Amino acid sequence: MLKIRLQRIGKRGQAYFRVIVTEHTKKPKGEFLELLGTYNPHEKEFKVKKDRIEYWVSKGAGVSPTVNNLMVNYKVWDKPKMQSWKPKKKEKAISDKEQVKPETQPATQ
Description:
The chain is of the alpha+beta class. It is 17% helix and 27% strand.
């Protein structure tokens, strides 16, 4: 399945992203089929080719939640936002009765 997603470029501390279309099984820093735009989070600059994105979506490509939300924020298209991350589940505190007691092993000589 094809996916429209971000590919990070730039130096450490100076993130810069490409908006690319690639096979979803490929590595994020690997080869891509087409460069669709760029995103600079430091200058809040988002440039994409809307017609090419719509072309790839019409061919069956999926859009990653992050790219979708960026396009909604920068008013490229009017679609609902997606949840792009899941909060970690908090582990329940173990009560005193449920704690596992360490087993004592007899000393062997």
